[in-house]
Amino acid sequence: MFEHIFEFLKELGLPGVFIGVFIEAIGLPFPGSVLVALAGFWARQGEFNIIIAWIVSLAGYLLGSYSAFIIGRYIGEPFIRKWGKYLRLTPKRIKKAQILLQKSAPIYIIGGRFIPTIGNATPYIVGLSDISIVKFLIYDMIHAVLWLTIFLTLGAVFSGEWHEMLNFLFDLSKSIDK
């Protein structure tokens, strides 16, 4: 089964990586980390240029994060009230996140994006706050650079063990989305 998924994703190429990373960054449950690792694997196999894969992934991530921030900023609370349940956002979680954000925006934005559920909600919560778009984008860019570099590198380094890597990443993705 993984071979079919693997080949399908490979056929999508860099536009598929862009879309997948965008979906992950906007906060929808999607295994973007797996896709980025696969892009690293494919780069190692000569299918992609790793620098272009990194840039495409970064663009998808920043556009997704920016979109989520804008939704939080300008549509904000009415959107969260209507759709938040699908993103696992409850009023209690939003309030807790805003308190954490007020205490330490850099740690919340950079580190929080690595934490399941909090990471999905981070750009929305920041959009609801009074943090400037410039600060958000700087901190989010730092996170994106770390995240993309880690997973592209993992994909490239473990390219010879792709079956085991896919099993591990899909299992990890399932546990994170729960």
Which SSEs are present, and which pair or pack?
Layout: H1 2-25, H2 32-44, H3 50-83, H4 91-103, H5 105-112, H6 118-128, H7 133-157, H8 162-177
Describe this protein's structure:
With 178 residues, the protein is mainly alpha-helical. The chain has one domain. The chain is built from 8 helices and no strands. The chain has helices at 2-25, 32-44, 50-83, 91-103, 105-112, 118-128, 133-157, 162-177. The protein is elongated, with a radius of gyration of 16 Å.
List keywords for this structure.
mainly alpha, 0% strand, 178 residues, 8 helices
Overall body shape = elongated
Number of helices: 8
User: Could you report the average pLDDT, rounded to the nearest whole number?
Assistant: 83
What kind of assembly state do the chains in view correspond to?
Answer: single chain
Helix content estimate: over 70%
Q: Whole-number radius of gyration? A: 16 Å
| Number of E strands | 0
Counting structural domains, the number is 1
Straight-line distance between termini: 22 Å
Class inferred from helices and paired strands: mainly alpha
